[in-house]
Design brief:
The complex is a heterodimer of chains A (about 140) and B (about 260). Chain A has about 140 residues and is an alpha+beta fold. Chain A contains three helices and six strands; from the N terminus they run ββαβαββαβ. Chain A has one domain. Classes of the chains: A alpha+beta (about 140), B alpha+beta (about 260). At the A-B interface, helix 3 of A face helix 5, strand 9, strand 11, strand 12 and strand 13 of B.
């Protein structure tokens, strides 16, 4: 349901466009920053996809991205994060004990994105938060086959 | 004769005569400059018979809006008489404007060189971006110019691929980055990426989890993040962030050569 908290044990994926992966290998912190008109960082809730393993989850995410975005660059990557790890890292390593919220925000159409979720409270000081999130990336995959 | 779909010829700021050409957004240096100037366009096999015009003693900039434009050929002459700065006036040669979507601006520094600036010449933010990348590429004050210019050009294309309508790189952010590079000529090469707003984000990463990152904002401010080991308490880290103007940023020694 919209606004549900994603459990700490669950995982989320973030599309990192080529401009965030300058050498084609390493995802930069800029991948976890917001546009000036955004309030939350778009991610996808992997367990919501109800797949049996990570590879199937990634396949589902790739299919979704191919529908959702006009173009996925060859260097684009999918970063995998654990919700609890991200929240804990940011909470313990920020002066304001920042409490990130990772909420389920499904999109109904154009195209439907039922696992869509968002990370809130990245601002202020989003560069600092983004660098911390970057340190919690567990694994990454090419965003297209 | 070389083929150009988009071409600019520049003088190199305050010291040098024209010697470089931007060709299809790829910077080529030391392009041989002909003693007389010709601007022309048309099909590959017919050039330069479709249109041709002499330019006398100026810098020229061709902008094409056609998605698949015919070829253009540019040479420039009288370059020894060019003004010593790139601030010049311009006029449109109407004979060229309506053909195949090309707009050609011919600069005549002899007539009114003080009335317009180089920025006036740049008809769009994208032109500004390419101009700035070219500046970085050709600045002797930036030791890392070659790597950085190539990197910036790749980022520009990455951003355009993601969103063809976007500016590629936010020009004011890139301008700040350029200013920063000119202030510090002993930097190690940063990892440069773009933020979602297409601002420059430069990072230096080093062993022992050292990080120094700078977000170059379009308003000439910069936001920075620094992580480094706490030598007195090895189990802890020092983490600092803040904002500053680029000329007051205090850099860590380890990001300098």
């Amino acid at each position: 349901m919209t606004g549900d908290k994603i459990p700490d044990l669950h995982h989320i994926s973030r599309l990192c466009q080529p401009k965030h992966v300058p050498d084609g290998q390493q995802i930069e912190a800029s991948a976890f920053m917001l546009r000036s008109d955004e309030s939350g960082l778009s991610v996808n809730w992997l367990e919501f996809l109800n797949c049996s393993n990570r590879d199937d989850e990634i396949d589902e995410i790739r299919k979704l991205y191919s529908l959702k975005f006009n173009r996925i660059g060859a260097k684009a990557k999918i970063a995998i994060l654990n919700v609890g790890e991200v929240r804990e890292k940011v909470k313990t390593e920020t002066d304001d004990n920042r409490n990130l919220e990772v909420l389920h925000e499904p999109i109904k159409d154009d195209p439907p994105d039922p696992s869509h979720s968002e990370i809130y409270n990245l601002k202020p000081d989003q560069e600092f938060i983004a660098e911390l999130i970057r340190e919690t990336v567990q694994e990454d995959y090419p965003a297209r086959h | 004769m070389p083929n150009f779909s988009k071409c600019r010829i520049y003088d190199e700021f305050e010291q040098e005569k024209i010697k470089s050409v931007v060709f299809n957004n790829m910077i080529k240096e030391n392009y041989p400059i002909a003693p007389s100037a010709t601007v022309a366009w048309g099909e590959t096999s017919t050039l330069p018979t479709i249109a041709q015009e002499k330019i006398k003693g100026g810098v020229c900039l061709i902008k094409e809006n056609h998605p698949e434009p015919p070829l253009a050929i540019v040479e420039v002459g009288d370059w020894c008489n060019l003004p010593t700065t790139s601030t010049t006036a311009r006029f449109k040669n109407n004979a060229f404007v309506d053909q195949d979507g090309f707009e050609i601006l011919i600069i005549d520094p002899q007539e009114s060189r003080d009335s317009l600036t180089q920025e006036n010449l740049l008809n769009s933010k994208e032109d500004q971006v390419q101009e700035l990348i070219f500046r970085i590429k050709t600045s002797r004050l930036i030791p890392l110019r070659e790597n950085l210019a190539n990197r910036l050009l790749a980022l520009y294309y990455d951003a355009k691929e993601e969103d063809p309508e976007c500016v590629g790189i936010e020009p004011e952010s890139l301008r700040s980055f350029n200013d920063f590079l000119l202030l510090h000529n002993n930097l190690k090469c940063p990892i440069v990426s773009l933020t979602p707003d297409n601002n420059i984000y430069a990072s230096w990463r080093h062993e022992h989890n050292r990080v120094f990152s700078i977000h170059f904002l379009p308003n000439a401010d910069a936001r920075f993040v620094m992580f480094k080991p706490n030598e007195k308490h090895p189990e802890r880290k020092i983490r600092i962030s803040g904002s500053a103007t680029i000329d007051t940023l205090k850099l860590e020694d380890w990001i300098l050569e």
